[in-house]
Amino acid sequence: MPVMKGLLAPQNTFLDTIATRFDGTHSNFILANAQVAKGFPIVYCSDGFCELAGFARTEVMQKSCSCKFLLGAETNEQMILQIEKSLEEKIEFKGEIMFYKKNGSSFWCLLDIVPIKNEKGDVVLFLASFKDITDTKVKIAAEDKKEEKWKGRGRAGSHFESARRRSRAVLYHISGHLQRREKNKLKINNNVFVDKPAFPEYKVSDAKKSKFILLHFSTFKAGWDWLILLATFYVAVTVPYNVSFIGHDELSTTRSTTVSDIAVEILFIIDIILNFRTTYVSKSGQVIFEARSICIHYVTTWFIIDLIAALPFDLLYAFNVTVVSLVHLLKTVRLLRLLRLLQKLDRYSQHSTIVLTLLMSMFALLAHWMACIWYVIGKREMEQNNPLTWDIGWLHELGKRIESPYYENNTLGGPSIRSAYIAALYFTLSSLTSVGFGNVSANTDAEKIFSICTMLIGALMHALVFGNVTAIIQRMYSRWSLYHTRTKDLKDFIRVHHLPQQLKQRMLEYFQTTWSVKEI
Prior knowledge:
Elements: H1 14-21, E1 29-33, E2 42-45, H2 47-53, H3 57-60, H4 77-89, E3 93-100, E4 106-117, E5 123-132, H5 134-150, H6 155-189, H7 219-246, H8 258-275, E6 280-281, E7 287-288, H9 291-299, H10 303-309, H11 313-318, H12 338-343, H13 352-383, H14 394-401, E8 406-407, E9 412-413, H15 417-432, H16 445-497, H17 501-519
Antiparallel strand pairs: 1-2, 1-5, 3-4, 4-5, 6-7, 8-9
Helix pairs in contact: 7-8, 7-13, 8-10, 13-15, 13-16, 16-17
Catalytic activity: K(+)(in) = K(+)(out)
Protein name: Potassium voltage-gated channel subfamily H member 8
Organism: Lonchura striata (white-rumped munia)
């Protein structure tokens, strides 16, 4: 049974992981396509980068990953060459460089370019992070001036002190960068001892779910849904029949379907349990694996209906508990499950045989329901003992025709249940299809009113069911018709232009091969 799978895992969660790693999309980073050698165009930029550089996202997209649009007069050309070299060789780059915003103002940036590989080890993306270190540079410069002012050193000492300060600045930046990276690692992995790469691979991630969660698109769930569908049709057939033709509580425990009814109720109870552990597709198209969300979703949708339909009425009869026979009708609430099937008919449109079978089954099921109602109307007419109508009802006429009349106040005798059901089903089918022969006819007022309703419903069902059947059959033959039309056009072209037999055969074979490849 085809179902909507949704945006399910396994899926590529690379961008979500990167956004989480950088504390959200307001961090300063861009992603570039490493497989386009000409410029390595930018394919994504964060909101933080747009705020830092002053450019709109539309102005940044598809520009070079080397960020030439951020270069200015005081940008170190040596650093520019190193950036381009690292991009060409697809290696990591770290360095401090002066960039310029859109408004022309400069800022010092700690640039970190990391190549991202896929599961095959090929570099597919470049991740470039930008950290504004202008304030840090200003502080270090101020400290340098302050130390030079208060401490006079010789040339060698001055050189040593300058080198020491530069080393301290580098250690300051690196330590701050590493602390931020470790902080993000802790947030994602919750374990500093796990040996994982600093950046995730650009690949399909595996589904992370509990082993007790059942996938709604799994093979087992598809087979189970078909089993529940058959059980639902069984309830749709047996419940109205038992209420109409059996109907007596003292005979309920002697029904031949008691065991199968209990088995179906057990199936429905198991189905409720499975639905509490089955994934579903949210409105956003994501597959939900969380057990709590699954329970809330099921309780707020189909749980009440499924629970009422799964009540073990047959076990109550087994314990000789007196229950009104019409309580069986509560199990027909389970028929609302068929609404799920109707909502998914568009997904079955490519499976013409399945749609055709379901439509014909629904038509036959409606005829069965109306046959049960037709029998109840005839039975009530007999039980009323109305001197004006008791001997003209359809059941009385049927009993006389098959030589099984009613006697003793219409409580004994009469046609068998089998004969009465067949006659009722014959009448409803002939009425729904508008081909009634009149040998089973409506005589009393109640029977005539029901016949009118049957004719109206039959007209609607005839248009709905057989209209869809016509469309399905036409769609089934449309490809066949198109193929023969194209073949005829090709043969006409060959005949008009008097093409040789060998070329004609080659053209026909080419057309047949091309058609088979495109239409499979």
